[in-house]
Amino acid sequence: MIALAALALGLSSCAMTGGSKKSEDTAVEKEVIQPWDLGGRGKGNFDRVIPFSTTLAQLHNLGIDPQLSNSVHRIDQAQIRAYFDYDPRTRSEQPDGILTCVDAGDRCYGYILQEPLVERHVKKGLLRKKVESEFHVPKYEAVILIMREPVLDESVVTYTRWNDSPPPPPVSFQKPPPPVYFQGQ
């Protein structure tokens, strides 16, 4: 008898928490991935971002937020122009989302998403001491441009791009010091 009462109580509580289909959809929209990752869920969430439709709040609900993840970096207008190598002479070749962002000026900013792959190298140095070095190679790179709409008091995504094979980071070589010449007297 007690087992039957417990079963009835359990089923009634499940029915109360079940909710409608609408509440299930909003629960999916509010799912936050911390930290933002490359795995199937991260790429799947990136694919849910639709230019000129997705708002900043929806973007943050997908976990794409520089305050939630150290793999999401905010870029400003000057960095956007440099990143896309924007040139007014080749304006007709640029996608609409980039042009909208450039025309918006300071009202437009972007997010770059990079999940670095850390490579460590251990080698024997002088006197057989171990020397460790590490460098970061990004596994992927994604860009999202966002424009603030003052009339709507809302920010909207204008452009997205995913790149599975970004270029390697620039390698900086240090110049050797100039040779020292001794002048005889």
Task: Please outline the helices and strands.
Blueprint: H1 2-18, H2 21-29, H3 40-47, H4 56-61, E1 72-75, H5 77-83, H6 96-104, E2 108-124, E3 130-149, E4 154-163
Antiparallel strand pairs: 1-2, 2-3, 3-4
Low-confidence stretches: 3-35
Structural class: alpha+beta
Shape category: extended
Helical fraction: 25-40%
Protein name: Lipoprotein
Keywords: Signal
Organism: Magnetofaba australis IT-1
What does the model show?
The protein is 30% helix and 28% strand. The chain is an alpha+beta fold. It has one domain (33-163). It has a four-stranded antiparallel sheet. The chain is extended, with a radius of gyration of 26 Å. Mean pLDDT is 71; it is low at 3-35.
